[in-house]
Write a structure and sequence with these properties.
Blueprint lengths: L8 H6 L2 E2 H24 L16 H23 L2 E2 L8 H25 L1 H15 L7 H20 L12
Parallel strand pairs: 1-2
Helix pairs in contact: 2-3, 4-5, 5-6
């Protein structure tokens, strides 16, 4: 029977998580668990299928909500198990960091509103390019290529494979 090698102080320190990150992990996990639980509760009203081979409309959201709850519980366990790091002496987030978050939230709301008028494709492609720029990806060539490519892939999966209707937009009807 062998024992695991003793960990040095340097390796324990590298696993340490700052207290603000720990609190953020726990709060985000709690919020996502609440959202997933409400999604599971909402699927109780979904109609049952009369076919023996049909899994029903509720199965897909229940599986994903259950996976989200499981992943959140793993994050909570890892966060509570990890040692807390000493406060970092680095610069605070500052106004620019909070402005980026606010701009991302505004871009999300704008995308949802624009989808009603221009449809899923154009609204999502522009939204993804803006979000990539806010996150630091500022390539004038790759931002639009990735945005259009990922939007097209998502559209193909939902529209053709899953047969989910996506918004066309009132301008194109």
């Amino acid at each position: 029977m062998s024992n695991a090698p003793a960990r040095s102080d340097a390796s324990r320190q590298s696993d340490a998580i700052p207290m603000t990150t720990k609190i953020a992990n726990l709060v985000i996990s709690a919020v996502l668990i609440a959202i997933a639980a409400s999604a599971i509760a909402t699927t109780a009203d979904f109609p049952k299928s009369m076919l023996a081979t049909d899994v029903g409309a509720a199965r897909f959201p229940i599986i994903h909500a259950g996976a989200l709850i499981l992943l959140c519980l793993i994050l909570i366990a890892n966060t509570l198990r990890a040692p807390t790091a000493a406060p970092a002496g680095g610069p605070p987030v500052g106004v620019a960091g909070y402005a980026g978050v606010a701009l991302g939230m505004l871009a999300t709301a704008g995308c949802i509103a624009a989808m009603e008028y221009v449809g899923y494709g154009p609204a999502t492609a522009v939204y993804m390019a803006v979000i990539m720029a806010l996150m630091g990806q500022r390539s004038p060539l790759w931002n639009p290529v990735l945005a259009v490519g990922v939007t097209g892939l998502i559209y193909a999966v939902f529209h053709y494979a899953l047969l989910v209707p996506l918004p066309v937009g009132s301008l194109f009807e």
